[in-house]
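Appendix B. Chain record.
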Amino acid sequence: MHPDVAKLVEAGRIPKPLGERLSQLAPGNFCIHKSFGAGKVIDWDLPGKKVVIDFEKSAGQTMELQFAFQKTEWIPSEDFRAKKIEQIEELRTLSKSDPLALVVHLLESHGGSMTGDALEKELSGTVIPEPGFKKWWDATKKNLRESRLAVVPQKRTEAIVLRSGDQSPAEALVTAFEASKDIKGMIRALEAIAADIGAFDQDVDALKRLLGDIDEGAKKAARVQLGQALQLVAARDEVIGSSKALELDPTAVRLSDLLLSADPVKLAEEAGTLPSGRQRAVYEAFPDAFGDVWVEKIVRVFDRVGARGVTEIARILLERGQLPALVTHLRSSIARRDLGSDALIWVCRERKTASAEVFSADVGASILNLLENDHLSDGPRKTSRLQSLLGDDKKLLIDLVEIMDINEARNFSRRLLDCPVFGDLEKKSLMARIIKSRPETGELVNGNNARRPEETLLVSWESLEKKKAELDDIIRNKIPQNVSDIKIARSYGDLRENFEYKSAKDLEKYLGHRRNALDKEINSARGTDFKGSDASKVNIGTIVTLTDRSGHDVEMTVLGAWDSAPDQKIVSYLSEVGKALVGREVGETVEIRDETTEEFQPLTIKSIRPFNP
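Structure tokens predicted for this chain:
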């Protein structure tokens, strides 16, 4: 402990743990900052609670002690990053005389592992001239693999792991697997084994010992961590596939076994989180798991597995001559307006090839329907990528309206103009593309059929007050705090590498958008208590009793634009269900999507009564 700090501890002015941390920031010590890189403490002012640090990317940086506690981490003087500050020439000489020693030293300073990208960031342009880095690293990487000092994966984004001790490379890999405390650790260890399978050419028995542990781990994980179990078994299969001496025991758990025992919804959710290669292995196991009905099973999860999963499933069906089944599924889902965002993106991107048969006017309606429903929900945005696609793909809207008749094109254009998701400039840009392809739609923004003013939103007083409170909090608290945070972050210097500054600016952009959106919504809203609603037919402020085919009754309350509460069977009149109900009378049958199965079911209106708040 630094002598000046020890006095404060002895006097009882600060606790010992704080004193030890404070001593790490004493002049002459080294530290690391996420944005500024490594640094050496030059001076401190304990009474003034400030410290001066010479960082790689910001020399003479003055920081508040409390902020330095939070944002820096102590590193020893022998750490590679510390040596870059005061012994850079020695490191440059070492890079030429003994590249492997340089890389080992770097890995040791990072806990024994780091990705190829991180390694390049640490060396290129500082220790090794940037123009010659690739050539240097290709040669060093080859020597590193041959030396077996470290496990070097093929991908730059995966970790290079340093080996240690007197064990052989094969023994070290097996030990790393056996020391794994969870399924994720076992998966990482298997990936390292697959990347260095040659280490087991003379020691296959060591690898065979692991298969039983993998089997047991997969069976246990399948009950509570299906995604991890799928990853583990897929990683095991990769190892077996790369080793000529290994065979899978007939009783071992297979991907098809995990698929067969999994809940379909959970399977889709878990599979969608896996890397593309592992997802493909899972989907390729569907025929073994489900036999003759595998195609039916796989299309059911198609639009639930995320962007990577959608692409992989479509590719597998195409390769196996089963694309017609996917086309049938897509055509039905698009007609019902219940195709997910990722699946719609795939349909749009493949409109000239695999999805050509289903790319129709209904696709445009489905896109707008999904964007509107997502906008009205209070949860996180799920359709940002779909919205971006409309702007980024310059020909998408043109291709859409070209296959529409004139009425379809006008209706689509009118809906786009009324869609609350897009800003005014974005709408103008999108409409310009449509008008260029279908000039007759220009009358919607020019001439007699100009776009009508924005309609008033009917909302409950409670929901209106919530919106006003959120706007008030943004204006009074969040924006001023954000301005202060930007000012503080800017003082740290080098805005290009300043993480705090970038985060604060991102928040500034979000708060600005949110403030404008709330302003617009509140100004177009009219509060009501829903008293005196006309119950001769379904209206805003009515309770509807519906009967299904089996005679069971369900009640739904139709309220304001921001009043959705699915758990209480309260729907907004702007929601899909609300739009289906409003205007209907007793005795009429409506198609309502089931929340669990997402299938449409016919419900007959049994009675309508006013809502009494």
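Further analysis of this model is presented in Appendix C.
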